[in-house]
Amino acid sequence: MEENKPILDFLQPLGLETYVGDFKTRGFTEDSDFQGLTLDDLDSMNITDEEHRGRIIAAATVHEVSDEHRVMQFLREHGLDYYFSNFLASDYTDLEAIERMDPGPATFDDLEITLPSHKNRLTKAVNKLRKRQRVSFVETEAETAIAYGYWSRPAALEGAICDFLCVKATIKSPEPNGQSVEREFLVDSGSDVVTIKSEILEQLKLPKKGDPVQSKGVHATVKKQLHSGVMVIGSEEINVEVISHDGIESIGCVVMQKFRHFITPDLHIWLGPVRRSESPGREATATRGFREASPVAGPSTS
Fold first, then answer.
1. What SMART domains is this protein classified in (predicted)?
2. Is residue 166 within 8 Å of residue 152, measured between CB atoms?
3. What mean pLDDT is predicted for residues 135-142?
4. Common-topology check for domains 5-62 and 67-143
5. What is the pLDDT, as a whole number, of residue 148?
6. Checking DSSP bridges between strand 194-196 and strand 180-187, what pairing results, if any?
C-alpha cells in the first residue's frame, strides 16, 4: 500500500492534503485512526484554521473504515501484508471475498504466494475468518434473540444414543385468564402439532378444535382430538394446535417456521420471528391428519 494512502484518501476529498505530514507525524496513519477525531487531536497536530478544523471533524464523524483497510488489517494480522496489492489485483477487495476464497494451488498461484509457510498462514487465516464471521453473525443477531434452546435427552428418550434439540417454552389456554405451564419441549420439525401429556392437557382445559383427526405416529395411526392452545417462546406468542402424547412433549414445524434459527453443536438460538402468511392447503392438512413426534437426532454424546 502506498505509504500515505489512507491519509490522502481521507484528506484529499476535503482539499486538505497539505496536512498529510502533520497526520503522519502524530501517528494518525491508519484508516481507523480517522474515526472519532477530536479537536484535541487537531490541536496536537497544530491545525488551527477554524474552517479546516470544522471540515476535518465533520468528515471524521461520518468516516467509515474502508474495505481495503480491513483487508490490509487482516493480512497484517497474519503476517501476509506483503501480498496486499496482489489481493486487490485478484479482486479480493473485502473480507467477504476472502471468506469465499478457496485456499489451494490455483489461488496461491494467482496471489503469487510461493513460500509453504505463507500458504499455511493464508489457509489458517481464511478458516479463522470464517469462524469469526459466524460468531459475528451470532453476536449481531443476539440482539433479537427470542430464546435459547439446547441439546439434551428428554426423559422419554433416555435410552437413545443421541441428544436432541430442546427448548423450554410455555403452553397456555387461549381463554382469558386461562392457565399456563412451562415445559421442556423436544423440537420436532417433522410434526405439524404441539404434543403435551394428557394430564397437562386436562390441567390447562384447552378447548377442543373440530372433530378428531388421524394422528400418524411412527408405528401406528390413531384418532386423536385436536385442541387450541397458545405457545409462548420468549416474548412471542403463537396460536397452535395441540394433541395429547404421553411419551414425548414436542414443538412442531408450525412453531419452528415462525422464527429464524441458528444452531451450533452447543446451542439453538431462536431469532426474530419470520412474518409469513399461512401456507396454502393448511386446513386440508388438518383433515388428512397429523404426524406425531419422530425427532431428528443430534450429535451422539455416548
1. SAM
2. yes
3. 49
4. yes
5. 87
6. unpaired
The pLDDT of residue 279 is 41
| % the chain with pLDDT above 90 | 32
Domain 5-62 fold: DNA polymerase; domain 1 (1.10.150)
Mean pLDDT of 133-145: 54
Q: Fold for 147-291, please state it.
A: Cathepsin D, subunit A; domain 1 (2.40.70)
pLDDT tens for each residue of 14-30: 999 999 999 999 999 88
* CATH superfamily assigned to domain 67-143: Transcription Factor, Ets-1 (1.10.150.50)
Tens-digit pLDDT profile for residues 224-244: 899 999 999 988 899 999 998
Return the C-alpha cell found at 54.
470544522
DSSP for the chain, written as a single string: --TTHHHHHHHGGGT-GGGHHHHHHTT--SGGGGTT--HHHHHHTT---HHHHHHHHHHHHH----HHHHHHHHHHHTT-GGGHHHHHHTT--SHHHHHT---SHHHHHHHT---HHHHHHHHHHHHHHHHHHHHHHHHHHGGG--EEEEEE--GGGTT-SB-EEEEEEEEE-SSTT--EEEEEEEE-TT-SSEEE-HHHHHHHTPPB-SS-EEEE-SS-EEEE--EEEEEEETTEEEEEEEEE-SS--EE-HHHHTTEEEEE-SSEEEEEEE---PPPTTHHHHHHH-EE---PPP--B--
The domain locations on the chain are: 5-62, 67-143, 147-291
Does residue 212 surpass a pLDDT of 50? yes
